[in-house]
Amino acid sequence: QVQLVESGGGFVPSGGSLRLSCAASGFTFSLSGMSWYRQAPGKERELVATISDTGMNALYADSVKGRFTISRDNTNHVCYLQMNSLKPEDTAVYYCKPTIFPNSWGQGTQVTVSS
Fold first, then answer.
1. Measured on CA atoms in the order 16, 69, 5, 78, is the torsion positive or negative?
2. Does position 9 have pLDDT exceeding 90, yes or no?
3. CA trace torsion 88, 90, 93, 94 (10° rounding)
4. How far apart are CA 55 and CA 5, in angstroms?
5. Based on the number of CB atoms within 10 Å of its own CB, is 84 exposed (0-12), middle (13-18) or buried (19 or more)?
6. What is the side-by-side order of every strand in the sheet holding 10-13?
7. d(CA 23, CA 14)
8. What pLDDT does residue 39 have?
9. How many Å apart are CA 21 and CA 11, to the nearest integer?
10. What pLDDT sits at residue 102?
11. How many CA atoms lie less than 13 Å away from 50 in the CB half-sphere?
12. Which of 46-50, 83-87, 98-102 has the lowest average pLDDT?
């Protein structure tokens, strides 16, 4: 059974930084790409970043490019999202998801950026 536990969210001022973590289990972590999504109140869930199974390739939404960095630790089965220069529009619940399991979601972690 796929399990995803996101952590690291919080309340930060505009311009601040946070590092999100996603602890994954129940599947062969090193064989799946990993993605971070976010959902703001009243908006649809959107893809933020994706990293390949080896960690060698990553893609970012235009809105976070240059500010966010996705990475992974295949030994410990953890995916990270380093978020710098945070803006109020980054406020959302952030979720991680393995790319090979389209319907597996964790509980998410709340990120709130004050203006």
1. negative
2. yes
3. -150
4. 19
5. middle
6. 10-13, 109-114, 92-98, 34-39, 46-51, 58-60
7. 27
8. 98
9. 16
10. 83
11. 12
12. 98-102
Which 3 state secondary structure label does DSSP give 16? coil
| DSSP assignment string, 41-72 | TTS--EEEEEE-TTSS-EEE-TTTTTTEEEEE
| CB-CB neighbours of 56 under 10 Å | 7
pLDDT digits (tens, 9 = 90+) for 50-95: 999 999 999 999 999 999 999 999 999 999 999 999 999 999 999 9
Q: Is the dihedral of CA 105, 39, 15, 115 positive or negative?
A: negative
CB 22 within 8 A of CB 5: yes
Q: Which residues is 80 bridged to in the sheet?
A: 21, 71
Could you tell me if 38 and 87 are in contact, meaning their C-beta atoms sit under 8 angstroms apart? no
Rounded to the nearest integer, the mean pLDDT of the chain is 97
- Percentage of the chain modeled with pLDDT above 90: 97
